[in-house]
Amino acid sequence: MGEGMSLTVEERKRVAEAWMTQIADTLRLKTVIVQVGAGNLKESVELARHAEEIGATAIACMSPSYFKPTTEEVLVEYMATVAAAAPTTPFYYYDINFMTGLYCDFNRLLTITRQTSCPSCPPLLSVFTMSASFTTSVSSQFLPALALGIDVPILNGFLGGIYRRLKEAFDDNDLQTARQQQILARKLTQLREKYGGGPAMVKGIMRCLGVNLGSVRLPLKDLSEEQVASLGRDLQDLGLTE
Q1: Whole-prediction pTM value?
Q2: In which domain, by residue range, is 112 found?
Q3: Is 190 within a domain?
Q4: Which of 159, 195, 203, 226 has its CA 20 to 30 A from that of 2?
Q5: What residues are paired with 94 via a beta bridge?
Q6: Where does the record place it (predicted)?
Q7: Quick check: is 229 in a domain?
């Protein structure tokens, strides 16, 4: 949902713990990556330490978005400090630059990471990115991303079934079906422009699909009842609801 930044540290811990119970209680969920990025280093370190304590599969961390790292070297130092708080848990840098306002040179970032000595840090496994300037696996680009060998998308839950069918078709060399699913995903994500995007739109879609995820928190605002009804009709036109 992307609402972690609207939660307190304690709320984020409880959410992470709730997801971890699903690994124990269901065979469907096998991986939980906890996003620990915050507005300050102390909270990210606390969340990273907690994620390791509860057995998270991996940790991802966004950059702070108010006082931002000014160079790739500073960004690596920041991430290394967070990673050191959970030394036995795989670590990812999570780039979502249109939200954080931080744009960096990924080649330089990874080069500096490889050259940085931090014995207590787990290796930086990869960069999760939703940047428009870097190879991504977001909703409008998953099929070309698969062709480049990127097979783990960043997505909202309502895209899960579409992406699963797309990936299965791609693996079976059924490119016609894969393209159809990519077009459907693209049409679905284009609704963001119509309804403003963000958590409110995602929660509106989930509500239309029968899953009520509650309200967003200020300064965000929920979709109006009229917008939800219109969204429901749009989803019906796409064949996603009856």
Answers
A1: 0.83
A2: 1-133
A3: no
A4: 226
A5: 128
A6: Cytoplasm
A7: no
Residues 225 and 108: their CA atoms lie apart, in Å, by 47
Q: What is the pLDDT of residues 50-103, one digit of tens each?
A: 999 999 999 999 999 999 999 999 999 999 899 999 999 989 888 888 888 888
Report the pLDDT value the prediction gives residue 134, as an integer from 0 to 100: 36
- E strand intervals along the chain: 33-35, 58-61, 91-95, 124-129
Residue 141 and residue 106 in contact, taking contact as beta carbons nearer than 8 Å? no
**Amino acid identity at 126:** S
User: Does 186 reside within a domain?
Assistant: no
Q: Which residue has the tokens 């999570």?
A: 94
CA angle in degrees (0–180, nearest 5) for 32-218-35: 20
Counted domains in the chain = 1
- The two structure tokens encoding residue 131: 């940047």
Residue 116's CATH number: 3.20.20.70
Distance CA 97, CA 27 (A): 34
Within-domain flag for 158: no
DSSP collapsed to 3 states, 147-174: HCCCCCCCCCHHHHHHHHHHHHHHHCCC
CA distance 193 to 211: 22
Q: How far apart are CA 234 and CA 100, in angstroms?
A: 31
Calpha distance 26→227 (Å, rounded)? 35
Give the C-alpha distances (Å, rounded to integers) separating 5 from 100, 202, 211, 233: 11, 16, 22, 31
Q: Which residues contact 19 (CB under 8 A, 6 or more apart)?
A: 29, 32, 34
Amino acid at 20: M
**Rounded to whole angstroms, how far apart are CA atoms 40 and 108?**
24
